[in-house]
Amino acid sequence: MRSSNPVFSRRGFSRDNGYAGFNAQQPQAGGAVGTNPYADGATNPYATNPYAQDTQLGAPQTRGDVMTIDDVVSRTAMTLGTVVVTAALAWILLPVDEANLGKSYGIAIGAALVAFVLAMVQSFKRKASPALILAYAAFEGVFLGVISATVSTYISPGVVAQAVLGTMAVFAGVLIAYKMRWIRVTRRFYGFVMAAAIGFVLLMLVNAVFSLFDGAGDGLGFRSGGLGILFGVIGIILGACFLALDFKQVEDGVTYGAPREESWLAAFGLTLTLVWIYLEMLRVLSILQGND
Protein backbone atom coordinates (compact mmCIF):
# COMPACT_ATOMS: atom_id res chain seq x y z
CA MET A 1 0.00 0.00 0.00
CA ARG A 2 1.22 3.48 -0.76
CA SER A 3 0.67 6.75 0.98
CA SER A 4 -1.08 9.68 -0.64
CA ASN A 5 2.10 11.59 0.04
CA PRO A 6 3.81 12.26 -3.33
CA VAL A 7 7.10 10.80 -2.08
CA PHE A 8 5.77 7.63 -0.47
CA SER A 9 3.27 7.05 -3.28
CA ARG A 10 6.13 6.65 -5.75
CA ARG A 11 8.60 4.61 -3.79
CA GLY A 12 8.11 4.35 -0.07
CA PHE A 13 10.08 1.77 1.87
CA SER A 14 10.59 -1.02 -0.64
CA ARG A 15 12.54 -4.18 -1.30
CA ASP A 16 15.00 -2.23 -3.42
CA ASN A 17 17.28 -1.71 -0.41
CA GLY A 18 17.13 -5.29 0.76
CA TYR A 19 14.12 -5.23 3.06
CA ALA A 20 10.42 -5.73 2.56
CA GLY A 21 8.40 -2.60 1.92
CA PHE A 22 4.90 -1.35 2.26
CA ASN A 23 3.89 -2.52 -1.18
CA ALA A 24 5.25 -6.02 -0.97
CA GLN A 25 2.86 -8.90 -0.48
CA GLN A 26 3.27 -10.45 2.92
CA PRO A 27 1.87 -13.70 4.35
CA GLN A 28 -1.04 -13.13 6.67
CA ALA A 29 -2.47 -15.30 9.39
CA GLY A 30 -3.60 -18.67 8.11
CA GLY A 31 -1.24 -18.57 5.15
CA ALA A 32 -3.21 -16.04 3.11
CA VAL A 33 -1.33 -13.44 1.12
CA GLY A 34 -2.28 -9.77 1.45
CA THR A 35 -0.96 -6.40 0.31
CA ASN A 36 -2.16 -4.19 3.14
CA PRO A 37 0.37 -3.48 5.89
CA TYR A 38 -2.20 -1.25 7.60
CA ALA A 39 -4.64 -4.08 8.17
CA ASP A 40 -5.15 -5.39 11.68
CA GLY A 41 -3.04 -8.46 12.32
CA ALA A 42 -0.62 -7.79 9.46
CA THR A 43 2.81 -9.38 9.85
CA ASN A 44 6.15 -7.59 9.83
CA PRO A 45 6.36 -5.68 6.50
CA TYR A 46 10.17 -5.74 6.83
CA ALA A 47 10.40 -9.44 7.54
CA THR A 48 13.31 -9.92 5.12
CA ASN A 49 15.48 -7.35 6.91
CA PRO A 50 18.03 -9.16 9.13
CA TYR A 51 18.28 -6.05 11.30
CA ALA A 52 14.54 -5.68 11.88
CA GLN A 53 13.12 -5.69 15.38
CA ASP A 54 12.29 -9.08 16.81
CA THR A 55 8.55 -8.57 17.23
CA GLN A 56 8.18 -11.64 19.42
CA LEU A 57 10.80 -10.55 21.94
CA GLY A 58 10.10 -6.83 21.47
CA ALA A 59 13.83 -5.97 21.41
CA PRO A 60 15.58 -4.43 18.40
CA GLN A 61 18.72 -6.10 17.15
CA THR A 62 21.84 -3.98 17.18
CA ARG A 63 22.90 -1.97 14.16
CA GLY A 64 24.01 1.64 13.84
CA ASP A 65 22.50 2.47 10.45
CA VAL A 66 18.80 1.78 11.00
CA MET A 67 16.29 4.62 11.03
CA THR A 68 15.19 6.05 14.37
CA ILE A 69 12.67 8.67 15.42
CA ASP A 70 15.59 10.99 16.25
CA ASP A 71 16.81 10.63 12.67
CA VAL A 72 13.39 11.55 11.27
CA VAL A 73 13.05 14.51 13.64
CA SER A 74 16.51 15.90 12.88
CA ARG A 75 16.17 15.53 9.11
CA THR A 76 12.70 17.03 9.16
CA ALA A 77 13.99 19.96 11.24
CA MET A 78 16.78 20.54 8.71
CA THR A 79 14.39 20.42 5.76
CA LEU A 80 11.75 22.64 7.34
CA GLY A 81 14.48 24.93 8.66
CA THR A 82 15.73 25.43 5.11
CA VAL A 83 12.21 26.31 4.00
CA VAL A 84 11.83 28.84 6.82
CA VAL A 85 15.24 30.48 6.28
CA THR A 86 14.83 30.90 2.52
CA ALA A 87 11.25 32.11 3.01
CA ALA A 88 12.48 34.77 5.42
CA LEU A 89 15.24 35.82 3.00
CA ALA A 90 12.76 36.02 0.12
CA TRP A 91 10.43 38.12 2.27
CA ILE A 92 13.27 40.57 2.98
CA LEU A 93 15.08 40.61 -0.38
CA LEU A 94 12.13 40.38 -2.78
CA PRO A 95 9.85 43.35 -2.03
CA VAL A 96 6.21 43.13 -3.01
CA ASP A 97 5.40 46.82 -3.31
CA GLU A 98 3.71 48.03 -6.48
CA ALA A 99 7.01 48.79 -8.21
CA ASN A 100 8.54 45.35 -7.58
CA LEU A 101 5.55 43.02 -7.24
CA GLY A 102 5.72 41.77 -10.85
CA LYS A 103 9.43 40.97 -10.64
CA SER A 104 9.11 39.28 -7.23
CA TYR A 105 6.14 37.26 -8.43
CA GLY A 106 8.08 36.13 -11.47
CA ILE A 107 10.94 34.91 -9.30
CA ALA A 108 8.50 33.17 -6.96
CA ILE A 109 6.77 31.34 -9.81
CA GLY A 110 10.14 30.31 -11.22
CA ALA A 111 11.22 29.02 -7.79
CA ALA A 112 7.95 27.10 -7.47
CA LEU A 113 8.51 25.41 -10.85
CA VAL A 114 12.07 24.47 -9.91
CA ALA A 115 10.85 23.11 -6.56
CA PHE A 116 8.20 21.06 -8.38
CA VAL A 117 10.77 19.57 -10.75
CA LEU A 118 13.14 18.74 -7.90
CA ALA A 119 10.28 17.12 -5.96
CA MET A 120 9.38 14.99 -8.98
CA VAL A 121 13.00 13.97 -9.55
CA GLN A 122 13.35 12.91 -5.91
CA SER A 123 10.03 11.08 -6.04
CA PHE A 124 11.27 8.96 -8.95
CA LYS A 125 14.73 8.31 -7.52
CA ARG A 126 15.41 4.92 -5.98
CA LYS A 127 17.25 6.48 -3.03
CA ALA A 128 16.82 9.62 -1.00
CA SER A 129 19.20 12.46 -1.97
CA PRO A 130 19.78 14.93 0.90
CA ALA A 131 21.18 17.56 -1.48
CA LEU A 132 18.14 17.28 -3.75
CA ILE A 133 15.73 17.43 -0.81
CA LEU A 134 17.41 20.51 0.69
CA ALA A 135 17.48 22.20 -2.72
CA TYR A 136 13.75 21.57 -3.05
CA ALA A 137 13.24 23.07 0.41
CA ALA A 138 15.25 26.18 -0.53
CA PHE A 139 13.28 26.90 -3.72
CA GLU A 140 9.99 26.11 -2.01
CA GLY A 141 10.91 28.58 0.70
CA VAL A 142 11.47 31.35 -1.88
CA PHE A 143 7.99 30.78 -3.27
CA LEU A 144 6.37 30.68 0.17
CA GLY A 145 8.25 33.82 1.26
CA VAL A 146 6.97 35.94 -1.63
CA ILE A 147 3.41 34.59 -1.39
CA SER A 148 3.35 35.13 2.36
CA ALA A 149 4.75 38.66 2.07
CA THR A 150 2.13 39.52 -0.55
CA VAL A 151 -0.74 38.24 1.58
CA SER A 152 0.63 40.03 4.63
CA THR A 153 1.04 43.31 2.72
CA TYR A 154 -2.22 43.44 0.84
CA ILE A 155 -4.67 41.51 3.06
CA SER A 156 -3.64 41.40 6.72
CA PRO A 157 -0.25 41.66 8.50
CA GLY A 158 -1.23 38.96 10.98
CA VAL A 159 -2.59 36.36 8.56
CA VAL A 160 0.80 34.64 8.00
CA ALA A 161 1.38 34.12 11.72
CA GLN A 162 -2.15 32.74 12.00
CA ALA A 163 -1.50 30.33 9.12
CA VAL A 164 1.74 29.12 10.71
CA LEU A 165 0.04 28.58 14.06
CA GLY A 166 -2.84 26.83 12.33
CA THR A 167 -0.46 24.49 10.50
CA MET A 168 1.34 23.69 13.76
CA ALA A 169 -2.00 23.03 15.44
CA VAL A 170 -3.05 20.61 12.69
CA PHE A 171 0.28 18.79 12.93
CA ALA A 172 0.09 18.52 16.72
CA GLY A 173 -3.56 17.49 16.65
CA VAL A 174 -3.02 14.72 14.12
CA LEU A 175 0.08 13.49 15.94
CA ILE A 176 -1.79 13.29 19.25
CA ALA A 177 -4.78 11.63 17.62
CA TYR A 178 -2.50 9.12 15.89
CA LYS A 179 -0.52 8.31 19.03
CA MET A 180 -3.75 7.88 21.01
CA ARG A 181 -5.06 5.63 18.21
CA TRP A 182 -8.07 7.86 17.65
CA ILE A 183 -7.02 7.70 13.99
CA ARG A 184 -6.55 4.20 12.63
CA VAL A 185 -4.80 3.95 9.29
CA THR A 186 -6.54 1.09 7.51
CA ARG A 187 -7.14 0.11 3.90
CA ARG A 188 -10.52 1.83 3.99
CA PHE A 189 -8.94 5.01 5.38
CA TYR A 190 -6.26 4.92 2.70
CA GLY A 191 -8.78 4.36 -0.10
CA PHE A 192 -10.98 7.20 1.10
CA VAL A 193 -8.07 9.64 1.31
CA MET A 194 -6.73 8.69 -2.12
CA ALA A 195 -10.14 9.01 -3.79
CA ALA A 196 -10.79 12.36 -2.10
CA ALA A 197 -7.32 13.67 -2.97
CA ILE A 198 -7.61 12.71 -6.64
CA GLY A 199 -11.03 14.34 -6.88
CA PHE A 200 -9.81 17.47 -5.11
CA VAL A 201 -6.75 17.90 -7.33
CA LEU A 202 -8.72 17.30 -10.53
CA LEU A 203 -11.33 19.83 -9.49
CA MET A 204 -8.67 22.43 -8.72
CA LEU A 205 -7.04 21.78 -12.10
CA VAL A 206 -10.37 22.33 -13.86
CA ASN A 207 -10.82 25.54 -11.87
CA ALA A 208 -7.32 26.67 -12.90
CA VAL A 209 -8.08 26.03 -16.59
CA PHE A 210 -11.30 28.04 -16.39
CA SER A 211 -9.47 30.85 -14.63
CA LEU A 212 -7.32 31.32 -17.74
CA PHE A 213 -10.43 32.40 -19.62
CA ASP A 214 -11.96 34.35 -16.75
CA GLY A 215 -11.20 38.05 -16.59
CA ALA A 216 -11.40 37.99 -12.80
CA GLY A 217 -9.07 34.99 -12.63
CA ASP A 218 -11.46 33.14 -10.33
CA GLY A 219 -12.38 30.27 -12.63
CA LEU A 220 -15.38 28.41 -11.25
CA GLY A 221 -15.22 30.26 -7.95
CA PHE A 222 -13.67 27.43 -5.94
CA ARG A 223 -10.93 29.69 -4.57
CA SER A 224 -12.91 32.65 -3.32
CA GLY A 225 -15.98 33.43 -1.24
CA GLY A 226 -17.92 30.71 0.50
CA LEU A 227 -16.83 27.99 -1.93
CA GLY A 228 -13.21 29.03 -1.48
CA ILE A 229 -13.50 28.63 2.27
CA LEU A 230 -15.22 25.26 1.89
CA PHE A 231 -12.62 23.85 -0.48
CA GLY A 232 -9.81 25.33 1.59
CA VAL A 233 -11.09 23.51 4.65
CA ILE A 234 -11.38 20.31 2.62
CA GLY A 235 -7.76 20.80 1.54
CA ILE A 236 -6.66 21.19 5.17
CA ILE A 237 -8.54 18.03 6.16
CA LEU A 238 -6.89 16.13 3.32
CA GLY A 239 -3.51 17.41 4.49
CA ALA A 240 -4.28 16.12 7.98
CA CYS A 241 -5.11 12.72 6.47
CA PHE A 242 -1.81 12.75 4.58
CA LEU A 243 -0.04 13.34 7.89
CA ALA A 244 -1.70 10.28 9.41
CA LEU A 245 -0.55 8.14 6.48
CA ASP A 246 2.96 9.54 6.77
CA PHE A 247 3.07 8.92 10.52
CA LYS A 248 2.07 5.30 9.92
CA GLN A 249 4.82 4.73 7.39
CA VAL A 250 7.43 6.43 9.56
CA GLU A 251 6.33 4.36 12.54
CA ASP A 252 6.60 1.12 10.56
CA GLY A 253 9.98 2.13 9.15
CA VAL A 254 11.37 2.76 12.65
CA THR A 255 9.77 -0.33 14.18
CA TYR A 256 10.94 -2.76 11.54
CA GLY A 257 14.41 -1.39 10.86
CA ALA A 258 14.40 0.67 7.68
CA PRO A 259 17.86 2.02 6.70
CA ARG A 260 18.83 5.37 8.23
CA GLU A 261 18.91 7.08 4.82
CA GLU A 262 15.14 6.61 4.64
CA SER A 263 14.76 9.27 7.33
CA TRP A 264 15.50 11.83 4.60
CA LEU A 265 12.63 10.43 2.56
CA ALA A 266 10.36 10.69 5.59
CA ALA A 267 11.47 14.29 6.18
CA PHE A 268 10.81 15.13 2.53
CA GLY A 269 7.31 13.67 2.65
CA LEU A 270 6.40 15.42 5.88
CA THR A 271 7.67 18.73 4.50
CA LEU A 272 5.55 18.38 1.38
CA THR A 273 2.48 17.70 3.48
CA LEU A 274 3.10 20.62 5.84
CA VAL A 275 3.61 22.99 2.89
CA TRP A 276 0.27 21.78 1.49
CA ILE A 277 -1.48 22.45 4.80
CA TYR A 278 0.14 25.88 5.20
CA LEU A 279 -0.91 27.02 1.75
CA GLU A 280 -4.49 25.86 2.26
CA MET A 281 -4.56 27.48 5.70
CA LEU A 282 -3.20 30.72 4.26
CA ARG A 283 -5.83 30.66 1.52
CA VAL A 284 -8.73 30.17 3.93
CA LEU A 285 -7.52 32.89 6.30
CA SER A 286 -6.91 35.24 3.37
CA ILE A 287 -10.48 34.84 2.19
CA LEU A 288 -11.83 35.37 5.69
CA GLN A 289 -9.64 38.44 6.27
CA GLY A 290 -10.45 39.82 2.82
CA ASN A 291 -14.16 39.63 3.55
CA ASP A 292 -13.84 41.68 6.75
Task: Report what the structure shows.
The protein is an all-alpha fold and 292 residues long. Helices cover 63% and strands 1% of the residues. Helix 3 (101-124) packs antiparallel against helix 4 and helix 6 packs antiparallel against helix 7. The longest helix is centred in the last third of the chain and has 31 residues, at 225-255. It is globular. Residues 10-41 and 50-62 have low confidence and may be disordered.
Structure summarized in a few sentences:
With 292 residues, the chain is an all-alpha fold. The protein has helices at residues 6-10, 69-93, 101-124, 130-154, 159-179, 187-211, 225-255, 262-290; strands at 26-27, 33-34. The protein contains eight helices and two strands; from the N terminus they run αββααααααα.
SSE order and pairing:
Blueprint: H1 6-10, E1 26-27, E2 33-34, H2 69-93, H3 101-124, H4 130-154, H5 159-179, H6 187-211, H7 225-255, H8 262-290
Antiparallel strand pairs: 1-2
